[in-house]
Amino acid sequence: MAAAPRDISEIRKAWQEANLAPLWENARAHRPAPGPEAAHLWSWEKIRPLIAAAAEVASPAAIERRARSRWSTASLARWRRAT
After folding, report:
1. Are 51 and 68 in contact (CB under 8 A)?
2. pTM of the model
3. What is the spatial distance between Cα 44 and Cα 50, in angstroms, rounded to a whole number?
């Protein structure tokens, strides 16, 4: 014979005490994925002076070329909100 179902509040309390949360009750887990970011074009005329300025404040011998990252406007906005 099957056991009688437990009260959901009892189960939720036990989950909370164990620092658990069921995925099916998490509204954020079921939202659609964000759409693709808009394309962004970095023009050499705008970027070249910024690269030169970076070389003035940090020696190219001390850093690697790969350390400079390009960020889309949307990604940079998300990064700024997170910090």
Report:
1. yes
2. 0.35
3. 10
Cβ-contact 76, 44 below 8 angstroms: no
Instruction: For residue 62, give the nearest of 70, 50, 54 by alpha carbon.
Output: 54
Quote the tokens at residue 72: 């889309």
User: What would the two tokens of residue 8 be?
Assistant: 């959901």
The mean pLDDT value for 36-51 works out to 88
78 membership: H or E segment, kind and range: helix 73-82
Output the CA torsion sign for 19, 28, 76, 81.
negative
- The Cα–Cα gap between 50 and 46 comes to 7
How many angstroms separate the CA atoms of 53 and 36, rounded?
A: 31
